[in-house]
Specification:
6 strands, 30% strand, 1 helix, three-stranded antiparallel β-sheet, 71 residues, alpha+beta
Length: 71
């Protein structure tokens, strides 16, 4: 996940916290086409890493392991 803008740091922190919770999560890339959403979980032992972009020093990324599941 990528975050840019005035709230990028807090938004990436919130995403990291949400991903760490044991729950079904849904990723929506286009709100106008909800059928393209992906439901997933972070598997037990999966990693979640949040980092500040070294080049821009303004963008944050959150990388994580996931497994797609049926909603």
């Amino acid at each position: 996940l990528g975050f840019l803008g005035a709230t990028a740091e807090s938004d990436s922190f919130a995403a990291e916290a949400a991903l760490a919770s044991p729950a079904l999560l849904t990723y929506v890339t286009d709100p106008g086409r909800p059928s393209l959403a992906m439901t997933f979980v972070v598997p037990d032992g999966g990693t979640i890493e949040r980092a500040l972009d070294d080049v821009t020093r303004a963008a944050w990324t959150v990388e994580f392991d996931y497994r797609e599941v049926l909603p």
